[in-house]
Amino acid sequence: MRSSTMQHKFKLLAAAAAVAGAFAAPATFAQGIEFHGYVRTQVGTTSEGGNLQCFSGAWPIRAKYRLGNECDSYGEAAVMVPFGKADGAWGKYNLMLALQEKNSQDYESISDENFDIASRQNYVQIGGFFPDGAFEEAKLWVGKRYYNRHDIHINDYFYWNNSGPGGGIEDIKAGPMKLSFAYHQNGGNAHPEADVVGKRYSMRFHDIAVNPGGTFEGELVFLKGSTAGTADTGNGYQVFLQHTQGGFLGGFNKLALVYGKKLGAGFEWLPTYAGGNEASGDSLRLHDQIYFNFPGTGFSGMATASYGYADFGSGKNTWASFGIRPQYNFTDNFSLAVELGHDQGKTDGGDKPKLTKLTVAPQFSLSGGFWARPVVRAFATYANWNAANGDAGTNGVFGSKTSGMTYGLQVETWW
């Protein structure tokens, strides 16, 4: 009898706790929920037959010009859920999942490795705690997120990307600029006592008006390895500096410099995928991109040039790249895009791979302009490469040839 009474009391306490918890939880607002995403998918073939293949450069070439040269069907779906009040403390939960498939058949699953799903962002951001002063716009965040990403759109190359699990505070007013501080780390996959974790401490200075229409920003990242075991660990740093000029040829110009030392020495995989083991050497990259738009003419597009080297202690590996994608809109809904790109590299062992790619793509979109999406396009791509570039990343379908073509259809959109 006593046991039954106690069980009844426990049930009442649990119910009361659940009710109290429901009333104590912060409110969410359905009308403020945001849904964003990106998707691209395509089908095609090569001049040799078979499935669609893509042209890419051998090491140390780091990117490929993407128009008519993407083979993976990829999507991102992101949802943002708000909490709190518009005129007080607030919070946001952000979740992004990535979807990738091989387009090999009608039914594709994770079990047959033709379909994959991955977590890209999963973090909470809060703010609104200070009504005025330096912290008026400040935000706190913890979780895994895209952080300070910068890319060259026409080759899908993220030349700066300090993303991953971490936490920090951002948008602190400091005179003519804003400051943001963050901590990130990459966890190990071995036994905990053997893990070597790469830890990153960063300071951003941004939103600095330096000239009419021009802004300056930068980020300094200190990298340090950490382990509970006996493995050797290293340290290093990376510096990112960028000037953005608005109103340039009807669009913008971005000029960026990235320098790294020791753990910070490398190309675009750093700092996001930095390890913590002992390292040496240095690296330098320069990237310039121009988005141009001439209203009333139908012409718009993008041009870019890059140079970089990475020396890991045995000599320099260099990469140079330049390309352009002009687009002409015959109407608001029909356009023709042409993309030409050239990459060349030199390894510390003396190899000199080269790759040149040309794509012609008629397109249909819902409106005019370079950034109009969704866009459905047909494409024909021709590439030429030298022997040092091997089979140009095309899985050997062109054999010993040093040129080839691909054809296909693609849709791309974001929202």
Automatic annotation (TrEMBL):
Membrane topology: Multi-pass membrane protein
Gene Ontology biological-process annotations: monoatomic ion transport; polysaccharide transport
Cellular component, GO, one term: cell outer membrane
Cross-referenced PANTHER family: CRYPTIC OUTER MEMBRANE PORIN BGLH-RELATED
Superkingdom: Bacteria
Family: Belongs to the porin LamB (TC 1.B.3) family.
Pfam families membership: LamB
Protein name as catalogued: Carbohydrate porin
Sorted UniProt keywords: Cell outer membrane, Ion transport, Membrane, Porin, Signal, Transmembrane, Transmembrane beta strand, Transport
Native organism: Caldimonas caldifontis
InterPro entries: G_neg_Bact_CarbUptk_Porin (IPR050286), Porin_LamB (IPR003192), Porin_LamB_sf (IPR036998)
GO MF annotations in UniProt: carbohydrate transmembrane transporter activity; porin activity
